[in-house]
Amino acid sequence: MSELTPMMRQYLEIKADYPDAILFFRLGDFYEMFLDDAVKASRILDITLTSRNKGTDGADVPLCGVPFHSATPYIARLIEAGEKVAICEQVEDPKSCKGIVRREVVKVVTPGLVVEAESLSPKDNNYLLAVYGEDGPRWGVAYLDLSTGDFRATEVDGEEGAWGEIACVNPREILVPTASRDNGIGRARTDLTAGRMITCIDDWVYDAEYAERTVCGHFGVASSAALGCDGWSNGVRAVAAILHYLLKTQKGRVDHIRELQVYQTQEYLLLDEATRRNLELTATLADGKRRGSLLGLLDRTVTAMGGRKLKQWINYPLLSNEKISERLEAIAELVAGSDLRREFREQLDGVYDLERLNGRISLASANAKDLVALRTSLEKIPSLLELLATTEAELLRQLHCEIDPLTEVAELIRSGIVADPPFILREGGIIAEGYHAELDELRAISREGKGFIARLEAKERARTGISSLKIRYNKVFGYYIEVTKTNLAAIPEDYHRRQTLANAERFITPELKEYEEKVLGAEERIVELEYSLFQEIRQRVAVQGERISRTADRLATLDVLAALADVSHERRYCRPEIDNGELITINEGRHPVVEALNASERFVANDLLLDSADNQIVMITGPNMAGKSTYMRQVALIVLMAQMGCFVPATAAHIGVVDRIFTRVGASDNLARGQSTFMVEMMETAAILRNATPRSLVVLDEIGRGTSTFDGVSIAWAVAEYLHDTERCAAKTLFATHYHELTELAVTRNRIKNYNVAVKEWNDQVIFLRKIVEGGASHSYGIQVARLAGLPVEVIERAKEILRNLEKGEYAEEGVPRIARGKKGSPPPPSAQLSLFERGDDLLRSRIAGLNIAALTPLEALNILDELKRMV
């Protein structure tokens, strides 16, 4: 390394501490990248790769760079590509230092630690999540949005619970112990970790004593129990991992992380990964977009922080009857008061993202326009408080008391920052007139330089009586007074000689010297002073970060309430009755999203009755395309909406609070984990049967369809019996099936009721009525649906022929349906379903024992013999 230049030695020394990050090395007006970093960055950013100097082996050193003042979009592209970026700045003034300028990494940007607005989705949190479960049955999960300061932690039951939280939180980056690199959570679920950065944290960080010290030290408490983490061994470790990572990457500039929101998953209606996906709560199954999801329908928030708050409400519905009722009461008042609701939304529409503004201010990355946006937002609060003062709902009254107008913060920014400041902080034009006396004087000098000189010149002529006296300036001598030699006798005593010429003398006075010192450094001093004053104002605002954060949260809540009231009023939703009983009734319920997206077709509403006494399981039969899945999903969504404190799409609804919603819907595989469609179906069903309680709501759609008919019927029948007969998991259940045999369960099980989706047949066509009626269906009308899908006429006619044979029970002597068109009309050899647990000789004996030899034709006997030979 001794052969390298001092600058390259410095670069390599700093780079050694950040081997997994691309180092942005500040050189003058550019961030430069060298060696492998340059090669990688030039490819991702599509910028020119060049070289400079020579390495110790004589090879060129790859180099590329980006302008420091416009580096943000380049950093964003690197982060999107899954890279980390270490920002290395010059930390001393090149003008005042000798030798090479000292440089340090001031922060590391990773996917989970992005704070720049250009790189963030306004209505989505950008979470960094830590998970730890190496010690004990409970897993710790903590997650932080650095851009807003939202920091939460919980403990869950086992790895399954941890994955459920990860699916719900949807983090950009996950922290795991280094020991988990190869066989831990980072590899266990590639379907959920795909597209997320997995960062390994040194195992020693998870030491119990170190974790406790880290957490207590950051939040200034004597024990983690003071934060609500009493007894949380793994939860504290997860929180400590995030704090340790922040210290390493942000260099301690995380003053806005002042509060840890500790929660118990038992406080909320639990939704596993499959249920969130199947109900399309925040994204659609088809394309992962917001439009077409429940969030896409309900989100009429007018602030970014309100949009994020609504998403939290959807992901974490409540169990507390009291808290649900508070929300419903507030929404009811806003639904009834159209003018009040409109005024709230109009005022909130001018509020910027206070949470992220507060985050950038606390991280010292906010510019002057951010402060102006904060002021503009705070100036909206007084009118909002006036409106809230007129409300009666308890939650709205509470918001009125807790929203802080932060008047002095708004006044500080108003008096200190100009109304329309520039983006760049080091070019002046930021601080308002009248805020700082010295700055005003410097500006006056800068603006009025010529006028001052003219006035001073006239003053000196009058004082000396020398009419030819002149005040001039040059770069060598600065400002001076020039007097011809014929007038030297008239000069005052305070004139000090600066230069002698052939026909004149040049002088300086104390007043002119003072002005010279001011004016020559005025522009530079103005820029320095403005930047210093801006930093001072920003720091004074940052001190109020906790108040800003609390007010932002309350404004977000008001925004969500007004948005839900708006959609409830427009779509004719009703206020549900909520209690802790076991009854769920819905009158004329509708699927909120399907109804909204199909405005041209009248949505057919349906009723529901579920309880634990007589109507625990509703067995739903009917044809494909008739609406079974839509009906079941709408029930689940109505229950969820009610428990998040929202009005629901029905004419009336009574919801006994449920503890969990489970869904087993649709067909999907997981090839990355080696799981077939049927295996995924069975695993999801098993999870339901393990975790459901009598207070749960279960939605089962076509259990057993991924295997043979007899296997499928058997499994579906057994699952229904288990849900009915097993006391600990006797959940209220909607069970849709094409296995009409399951309708017979209503005869033997008194809490199972049969319903079907009504259809009407006309001219060999099926008309879907979309109405749920009592009784079981006897047909699935699959062939008619296949015709609607466009199958060839020949296929449809042949299918109808086969169906008639099956329904008439036309079987050969061997028990094989006469449906195949083999040679000379003979049926194909029967197929035996092989068991995973039976030996081949057992199957052979069983097959031979079932033969009716006396009834076989010679040809059939030869075919069977050939089959038996293949089984040996």
What's the structural blueprint in terms of helices and strands?
Blueprint: H1 6-16, E1 21-27, E2 30-34, H2 35-45, E3 50-52, E4 61-67, H3 72-80, E5 84-90, E6 103-109, E7 128-132, E8 138-145, E9 150-157, H4 158-169, E10 173-177, H5 185-188, H6 190-193, E11 197-201, H7 208-219, H8 233-250, E12 261-262, E13 270-271, H9 273-278, H10 294-298, H11 304-315, H12 321-336, H13 338-348, H14 354-362, H15 368-378, H16 381-388, H17 394-402, H18 407-416, H19 437-447, H20 449-464, E14 470-474, E15 478-484, E16 496-500, E17 504-508, H21 510-520, H22 522-542, H23 545-570, E18 577-579, E19 584-589, H24 592-597, E20 606-610, E21 617-621, H25 628-643, E22 652-656, E23 660-664, H26 677-691, E24 697-701, H27 709-725, E25 732-736, H28 745-748, E26 752-762, E27 765-774, H29 782-789, H30 793-808, H31 840-849, H32 858-871
Parallel strand pairs: 1-5, 7-10, 9-12, 10-11, 13-23, 18-22, 21-25, 21-26, 23-24, 24-25
Antiparallel strand pairs: 1-2, 2-4, 3-4, 5-6, 7-8, 8-9, 14-15, 15-17, 16-17, 19-20, 19-22, 26-27
